[in-house]
Design brief:
The structure is a homodimer. By secondary structure, chain A is mainly beta. In chain A, about 15% of the residues lie in helices and about 35% in strands. The interface between A and B is large, with 37 and 37 residues. Strand 7 of chain A pairs antiparallel with strand 5 of chain B.
Chain lengths: ~130, ~130
């Protein structure tokens, strides 16, 4: 463990930090997920984004089933130390488990959320095994 | 309250949703903060970003002291319904309470966080009153 690096992080009560993944080429914000100390260290060491899945309660190597791995190009910490911004190269061009480029595919319009982004790949064919954020 | 809009949101145990503010012109991710139902509704109704300050336990009208208001251009909800991505026009060009454009001004380099963004305005002159995320 790199204690120098980790000591600046303000973990929440569950020992997690929010991590925003941004496409380093398009600037598109792809998703927001969570990391614990282990997943952050694994991300740094491997260069591939590894999150902590709160729903599954285990490490989540992004793209382990779909192949949509996120190659980390740089990482920044915010002023409060409780959010990471990760610039990634999104392999496959798909970050969302619905088969869309970004998880932020519902846009506020006339008082409700409208789907404004198309599915690039059918999730049924995208996963060898079930993967869900 | 717009219940149709709010029912798609998955509030956390504290009744909050994460909100990422992205500069609609540069694509720069500026900050991540939190909203409760009231602050989200106020944001939508007013067109200016209103957050919930967890540290102060009250509504936080971004820029109320500094003048660095965020004019909302669009808003998107992620697949899980627990994170908002808000495209904003950042008045004053400064989102961070440290006087920097973005809160993500510390970049990982050689095993530690290095400050890679300059202060555009001294916080001492930026606030009429104390404002802190």
């Amino acid at each position: 463990m790199n204690t120098q690096l980790l000591q600046h992080i303000k973990w929440n009560n569950d020992g997690l930090i929010a991590a925003i993944a941004q496409d380093c080429n398009s600037g598109r914000v792809l998703m927001m997920a969570w990391m614990n100390a282990e997943s952050l260290q694994l991300s740094i060491d491997s260069g591939d984004a590894v999150y902590w899945s709160r729903s599954r309660g285990k490490l989540w190597r992004k793209g382990e089933s779909s192949g949509n791995v996120q190659k980390i190009r740089s990482m920044a910490l915010d002023c409060d130390g409780d959010t990471l911004l990760i610039q990634v190269e999104q392999l496959g061009g798909i970050a969302c488990h619905t088969g869309r480029q970004s998880c932020f595919y519902r846009t506020l319009s006339e008082g409700d959320w409208k789907i404004t982004e198309k599915v690039l790949k059918d999730p049924a064919t995208m996963y060898q095994h079930v993967e869900k954020a």
